[in-house]
Structures are given as structure tokens and as C-alpha cells.
Amino acid sequence: MVHDNKKLDPLDGLRAPQDPACDVFLTGTVFLDIIFTGLDSAPVRGTESWARGMGSSPGGVANMATALARLGLHTSLAAAFGDDHYGEYCWDALEQGEQIDLSRSHTVPGWHSPVTVSMAYEGERTMVSHGHEAPPPAGSYPNCPPRARAAIASLGPGSREEWVLHAADRGTKVFADVGWDETGRWDLAGLADLEHCEAFLPNAEEAMRYTRTDCPRAAARALAEKVPLAVVTLGAEGAYAVDGSTGECASVPAIAVEALDPTGAGDVFVAGFVTGTLAGWPLADRLAFAGLTAALSVQEFGGSLSAPGWAEVAAWWQRVRTCRGQDQAALRRYAFLEDLLPAAARSWPLRRAVPTIGFRTP
């Protein structure tokens, strides 16, 4: 396997000439994220707070797209971009910086980019967002959805996305997450596209509310009757999955880390799980890898800024094996990484660059 973060291919040896060029397709809203860091506490009404750090990056669906691309998957994103400087910056950061295919995206004249300001402190964050819904493109996104190994959909109560059915009909594995149900009904039947999904990845609270259970594991088992693979994230307790087709269950504890900013951690978890699934790894290994990538992401500020690549995973693995006092049984849970990872060229901890709008290269 090539020992280069940009070129490492988790599907090396699995690709065939007749396979689709796209590994993962997704669509959604791209925000410009402005992240203030180094705050000692939440802002207080009537006062001015100064942050010791600030960064800017594409956010929203770009968090997921970036996480997938950094793990070596050929990622295609269909989204609207404003024709303001924010939109130009997000487009360039994704296409040039992350090598994400934006051929199915479009620029909307006169539409300004949605913006989220995130303030991170005490391991949590507070966000303020502003934006308007983008007008639909003329006709539809070109060649959308493309032939792809996988697609990621965000399900909502009472809504149906026509592209999900088209993708599933073409053999694409659809992975779905879900947000908070503002209607309060928590009706699983209201998630119309769930029937077309290969896997469903809610968090524990969402899973229990949708299944009317009081235990995340019971919720996962109930969801596995509706979808081939149910994965319930348990926060600090890790994740639990049930394969409805085989009856296999897997539980992997979380990695204890000092969380600086949880923004985008759920997106990174999904990206890690999709990567392991497409690579054909065992269920427990997929859970472990997804949890590891999410844990690495919360140690950095920002959403797409914090998504780890293979170099970060390799540096972590090199470090934990050489630190004293490690739980050897816990380390064996990640032994599958040994044959996958590049040689770590940089030491831990890795500091990822925080880009800021405004600088120009001569």
C-alpha cells in the first residue's frame, strides 16, 4: 500500500474496471464555518469576549465530504454554492484542497452563502447560523445521483428524496443518519427513505425515541428489523451494531480523549464506518475504526478542519503502542490497523493547519 496520506487507497485490491468511478455520493447544504477557539467560558450578555484563536472552513455537508475524502474515498458532492467570496472559498477548499468532485454542484448567482459561527469552550460548542434556502438548479443536478459504491443520506420526518430511490435501484449502498425530530412524533414510518437504506446510524437518544425503547442496544435490535444494518452511537460508551441479515452484534468502547470541539464528530464516525464497510472489514473493526476517527477529530477545533486522514491515524497508532501503561487487550482491538497504515512520518500530536479567508498567494 502506498505510504502517502493523499494516495493511500482503502479499497486497494478491490477495484475493478467495471466499478463506478465514484466511491461515495452525497448532497446537502454547504456552510462557511467560522470557529472561535480559546474561549474560557460562554459569552455573557452585554459583554465582549475575545477568542485566542479563529479558523474558517467549509461546513455543513462539507464536514462529511471532507472526512470521506481524507480517508481516500473518491467523493462526489452535489451542492449549491453562493457566488460571493465565501462560496468561492468553500468551492476552492473542497475541490482543490480536498480533491472532492464538484462536477454535480452549481453556483447560484446573487445567492449568499449560509454561515455558521461556532464558539468552542469546555469541550462543547455554541453555534449561530444564518442562511436562506438555495433556489433549485435549472432542471436538476447533472447526472445525479451518479453510479457509486455508496451514498449518504440525511433522513427527515415526512420527507422523501427521490435520488435515494434512484441510487438504491442502481446498486448503491445507502447509509443514513438522522437529526432531531422537531415535530416530536418520532415516527419511524415517517422516515420514508429508510426502506432503501443499507445502514442506519442514529445516536442513542434518537434510536430509543424512534423505537420506543429505554436501552440503546434494544433500540439497535429493533432497528435491525427495519434496515439491514443498525448502528447506534453511544457517545463516551462507544457504539453498538446489529446486522439484521446475519444476526451478528458488535460492541466497541470509545477511546478516552480530551475533547476540545465535538463539531463534526458524528460525520467523521459515519465516514469511518462507510470506509470500513466498502473495504469489507468485519463489523467490529468497522465500529472501532469509526470510533477512532471520531475520537481523533474531537481533539481538534472545527468540523471539516478536524477530520483525520491516514497520517493522523498512523501517528496515533505508533504513539499508543510505544506509551507505557497501555491496556494491551484494548490495543489488540486495533491490531487490524497494522497492515493498513502508512509508516508514520510525523510525530504525535499532529497539528492540522487552520485556514483563514483573506490571504493570497503571490
Number of strands: 14
**Segments where pLDDT lies below 50 for 5+ residues?**
1-6, 350-354
Rg for CA atoms: 20 Å
Q: Percentage of helical residues? A: 25-40%
Gap between N and C termini, in Å?
36 Å
For the largest sheet, list the strands in their spatial order. Answer: 4-1-9-10-11-12-13-14
Q: What integer is the average pLDDT?
A: 88
Structural class: alpha/beta
How many helices in DSSP terms?
9
Global outline = globular
Order of secondary-structure elements: EEEHEEHEEEEHEEHHEEEHHHH
What fraction of residues sit in β-strands? 15-25%
What's the story with the biggest beta sheet?
8 strands, mixed
Structure, explained:
This protein is an alpha/beta fold. It is built from 9 helices and 14 strands. The protein has helices at 61-70, 85-98, 162-169, 204-211, 216-223, 265-278, 283-297, 310-322, 328-332, and strands at residues 22-27, 30-37, 53-60, 75-78, 80-82, 106-108, 115-121, 124-130, 148-155, 173-178, 199-200, 229-233, 239-243, 249-252. An 8-stranded mixed beta sheet has the order 4-1-9-10-11-12-13-14, with helices on both faces. A 4-stranded mixed beta sheet has the order 3-2-7-8. β12 (229-233) and β13 (239-243) form a beta hairpin. α1 (61-70) packs across α6 and α4 packs across α5. The longest helix is centred in the last third of the chain and has 15 residues, at 283-297. The chain is globular, with a radius of gyration of 20 Å. 44% of the residues are buried. Residues 1-6 and 350-354 have low confidence and may be disordered.
